[in-house]
Amino acid sequence: QVQLVESGGGLVQAGGSLRLSCAASERTFSNYAMGWFRQAPGKDREFVAAITWNGGSTYYADSVKGRFTISRDNAKNTVYLQMNSLKPEDTAVYYCAAEAPGSKSYDYWGQGTQVTVSS
């Protein structure tokens, strides 16, 4: 069982930046692909970004491409989401998720961290 704990959310003005962190309990964290998702009030959860187990490939939703950067530090069992040029429409609860080796879906989820961007 992998436990994921997000941190770094908060209130920021439009145009500002935040860095989210997601710490994993699993000692084999480096085997897992990781992703970030978000859910705004009244909307479905949506994909934001993902990174392969070794950080060799990254993927982004079109809405955040060029503004957000996903990265990971396997020595610290942590994945990050650097968010720049934030917009009010980025306001949501952000979740990190882990995809186990061989899995075709995200198997473990964190509890989420709130990001609020004021205009």
Describe this structure in words.
- This protein has no helices and eleven strands.
- With 119 residues, it is mostly beta strands.
- The strands form two sheets. Strands 2, 4, 5, 6, 9, 10 and 11 form a seven-stranded mixed β-sheet that branches. It has a four-stranded antiparallel β-sheet with strand order 1-3-8-7, with no helix packed on it.
- The N and C termini lie far apart (40 Å).
| Separation, N- and C-terminal Cα atoms | 40 Å
Output the helix-strand order. Answer: EEEEEEEEEEE
Question: Percent range for helical residues?
Answer: under 10%
Number of DSSP helices? Answer: 0
Strand-residue proportion? over 45%
Assembly annotation: single chain
State the total count of DSSP E strands. Answer: 11
Radius of gyration: 13 Å
Describe the sheet with the most strands: 7 strands, mixed
Low-confidence parts lasting 5 or more residues at pLDDT below 50? none
Shape: globular
Structural class: mainly beta
Mean pLDDT: 96
